[in-house]
Amino acid sequence: METIILLAFWSVPVVLGYVFGRAAESRHYRSIIAREKEQLKLPATSLKTPVRSGPVARSELVTGSVVISIDYFKKAASALRSLVGGPVKSYETLLDRAKREAVLRLKESCPGADEIVNLRLETLPLAGSQRNQVTGVEVLAYGTAIYYADAGQA
After folding, report:
1. What does the pLDDT look like over 60-88, one tens digit per residue?
2. Closest by alpha carbon to 71, among 22, 21, 28?
3. Which of 10, 27, 116, 142 matches a 20 to 30 Å C-alpha distance to 46?
C-alpha cells in the first residue's frame, strides 16, 4: 500500500506536468509559426554587411529577449537522463522555442526596417538552488536594423 502511495506521489505530478506542459508548448509553437509567417518579409542574416545595396537612411541596434522556464515533466525527464547519460532531448524544444521567440521579438521591435544584419544569439541557462540544476533559459537576440532611403520606391 505504501508503495502505491509513493508511486502516485511521484507519478501524478509528472503526468500532469507532461499534459499541461505539452499543451502550453503546442500553444506557443502555434503562436510562433503564425508570427513567423507575418515576419517573412523582414530578412535577418548573420552577415556583417547589408544584403541589399543602396543608400541607407539609418541603422540601429535592435534586441529581443525571452525567458522560458522548464516544466515539471522536462525537469523529471532530464533528471532521469542525467542518471544514464546522453543528450537531453526534452531541453531541445525549450531552446528552439526560446531562440525563435527571441528573434521574433527582435523583428517586432523594429517596424519599418528593411533588413536585419549581424544577427547574434546569446543563451544563458538559469540555475536553480541546487548545483547543475537548470530551471529555465534566457535567450537574447541582437542585430542591426537597416532602413533604406529608397524603401518607399521599391
Report:
1. 999 999 998 877 667 666 666 667 777 77
2. 21
3. 27
Instruction: Specify whether the CB–CB gap between 123 and 106 falls below 8 A.
Output: no
The strand pair at 134-148 and 115-127 is best described as antiparallel
Please count the residues of the chain.
Answer: 154
CATH number, domain containing residue 41: 3.30.110.70
Task: Please tell me the pTM assigned to this model.
Answer: 0.80
Q: Which domain holds residue 55?
A: 2-153
Nearest to 21, CA basis, from 76, 86, 103, 58: 76
The DSSP symbol for 109 reads T
**In the predicted model, what is the mean pLDDT of the chain?**
85
Cβ contacts of 18 within 8 Å, gap of 6 or more: 73
Q: How many domains does the chain have?
A: 1
